Amino acid sequence: MFNPRPRIERVDVGGGFHAWVVDDALLDPQALRQRAIAERERFEPAPHNAYPGLEWRMEDDVSAPLADFFLLHLRGVLGGRRTQGLYSRLSLATLQPPDLSPLQRLCHRDRFGATPDQMVAACTLYLFDDLALGGTSFFVPRRPIEQINADIRRWHTMDSEAFTHEIGSPPGYLTDSNAHFERTGLVPAAFNRAVFYDGSQFHNSHIARPELLNADPARGRLTLNGFFICRRAAG
Question: Which tens digit of pLDDT belongs to each residue from 33-53?
Fold first, then answer.
């Protein structure tokens, strides 16, 4: 399923972090895309997390090859040892700016309750042709993390109008620096490109043209997302 001889490039995304960009990640990316199109009824809203759209949890026929690829090529460079948990999903970002919750208008981290001796790695594999649908942005906080964490807890309880008043910008996906976060990196989208990164760095989908989002997997921002909970490598 995954390319056994991948082209991997390390990219500095700021804040002391790197991302690893894998082009031609799948041997047959159209097969996974056509599966999403043929079984589009499997996509469901994701109220249990902050993902702004629809998702379809993948089974072992996708998750197992992804786990093997991660083990062989990415886990060590991302600072992980033994993989202790993994899940993958096909995702479709669909929400328009007025429908976003406050936290969906910000960058985020993937932590999954990891303990200090664990790290969470993540990946996004782009399965769409229209590159205007956007890649992945990376951010660092402009203020001490304790203050940012307190603000995030407070913003979570706000409605959209109150949040808009506080941050002084209209509803929309975060694509550039603001008073709270500085954008330090951007990995552009490309069909069959995957980006692997440390989930503890703030990041988000770089959706500058939300009017292009679509719930049709043949036209929308279709991605394969993976999350890996690993023991943290010593040192």
Answer: 999 999 999 999 987 778 999
Give the chain's radius of gyration (CA, Å).
Answer: 17
The pTM score is: 0.96
The token pair at 4 is: 């056994």
pLDDT digits (tens, 9 = 90+) for 120-159: 999 999 999 999 999 999 999 999 999 999 999 999 999 9
Residue 228 has a CB neighbour count (10 Å cut-off) of 27
Measure Cα distances from 10 to 87, 175, 178 in Å: 24, 22, 26
What is 7-232's CATH topology?
Answer: Jelly Rolls (2.60.120)
| Interval 60-73: pLDDT, tens | 999 999 999 999 99
* Domain definitions of the chain by residue range: 7-232
